Amino acid sequence: RLVKMVGNYQHYFHVIQPLYDAEMIRNTQAEHRAITDALRHRDIDKATRLVAKHITSSGELIARKFANQPR
Q1: Backbone phi, then psi, for 41, in 5-degree steps?
Q2: What is the DSSP letter of 42?
């Protein structure tokens, strides 16, 4: 199951990576660090909020980037 998840993520990253600029990568890495920090501290409520925010903001960002791509 984990191998399949990693494979799916690698495909996602290959497709999405070209849409990311340096600032977006830094922001995403900071979000990931905040999530793992909350998990390390066993703060499930905070981790849940951070993951939800990360997914929502990432989805919105990707949608905006694809909307600006030539067809």
Answers
A1: -90, 5
A2: T
